[in-house]
# Entry
Amino acid sequence: MERTSIYSADLPERDKVVYLYLKERCGKKNECFPAMKTIAGDLGICKRTVIRAVNDLVNAGMISTEQRWRENGGKSTLIYRIEK
# Structure
């Protein structure tokens, strides 16, 4: 499968900014787990914009997400995996 560059992807600029933010924070496993509120604050955009961008990136196959859970059964942050 050919790897698509985020720069040539037909995605809104917000998606590209969020993708680059996540990619910069990923470790060796291409995973990171910042809170949506943290992403929004660091990028100076609203949380709803981050949610839209993440959904677009998942639909484009650029990233995948997985829900993390606390020991008490409550939701924690998502794990973001860079796929392309």
